[in-house]
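ok so i was messing around last nite and threw this chain in just to see what happens. nothing serious, just curious
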Amino acid sequence: MKQGIMTSNRVRLLLKQGDSHFTCRRDGYRKRKSIRGCIVSPSLAVINLVVLKRGETDITGLTDEASKRPARYFLKRAQKLRKLFGLTKKDDVTRYALRNVVTKTSKSGKVSKKVIAPQVQRLVTAGRVHTKIQNKKVVEKRNLATKKAAEEFNSLVAIRRKQFATQKEAAAAKKRSLSRKLSDRKMSTNQ
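result:
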């Protein structure tokens, strides 16, 4: 629903940058879109509303006392729970999280109650500290293994380079000796 369109049905509007219900991807880009007017009609499936001010009479099923249900959602983050209840870091925050009682009936007619509490987020426990330490040790072990493998590889490369250099030098010396022999033969045949 777009404000300013005084009709109850849908209209196709050419929208440009800055208009609501339209995200402009490029400069000067326009698009024709189907948009419903701002008048409420029976053709609407859902209307989302927010009650801003309480009137003289209650809305049945919404603001009256009979419609009040226990809260389903509550704070979950550990720091926010500590702040709300004035707890210290040593207090058990999980006791202050909201718990819901869910009743279930089985096929045989047996009723069972189950208490569901959300997992408190960002809660530093002994288990989490232990896991963090273990993960750090694993990373350090991996880093040491990588360094050791790199050192071994570098030493192997240095050995191979020395071998290659000595082979190259030997080949060059062999060539020099052969060329000397050939030049000596030529000299002897010329004389």
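not much to say yet. Residues 1-68 form one domain.
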